């Protein structure tokens, strides 16, 4: 067997996400509708999420989910261990309703 004298050149590969994130599963997994309404279903402790992106903006929504007390230190919203992919899927969904 002959070993090449120079290292192999890296090959660039684009990988598709192996799992598609279902935003409705995200809502269920983190119990969002325990406090928030989405399309008329859910709790009323927190604001409805139906228009949150159009009213507050995408950046606000993303930060609020990651850092719930950033704009209100007495917010009852807990910090969730949501992944970036889950958060993006949820933001896309909420932007579409």
From TrEMBL:
The keyword Iron-sulfur does not apply. SUPFAM superfamilies: Cytochrome c. Residues 18-97 form the Cytochrome c domain. One of its GO terms (molecular function) is metal ion binding. Keywords: Heme, Iron, Metal-binding. InterPro entries: Cyt_c-like_dom (IPR009056), Cyt_c-like_dom_sf (IPR036909). Pfam families: Cytochrom_C (PF00034). Gene3D superfamilies: Cytochrome c-like domain (1.10.760.10). This is Cytochrome c domain-containing protein. It comes from marine metagenome.
């Amino acid at each position: 067997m002959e070993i090449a004298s120079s290292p192999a050149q890296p090959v660039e590969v684009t990988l598709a996400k192996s799992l598609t994130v279902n935003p409705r599963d995200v809502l269920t997994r983190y119990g969002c509708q325990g406090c928030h309404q989405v399309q008329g279903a859910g709790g009323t402790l927190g604001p409805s999420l139906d228009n949150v992106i159009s009213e507050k903006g995408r950046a606000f929504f993303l930060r609020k989910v990651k850092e719930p007390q950033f704009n209100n230190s007495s917010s009852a919203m807990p910090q969730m261990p949501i992944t970036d992919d889950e958060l993006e899927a949820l933001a896309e969904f909420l932007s579409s309703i």
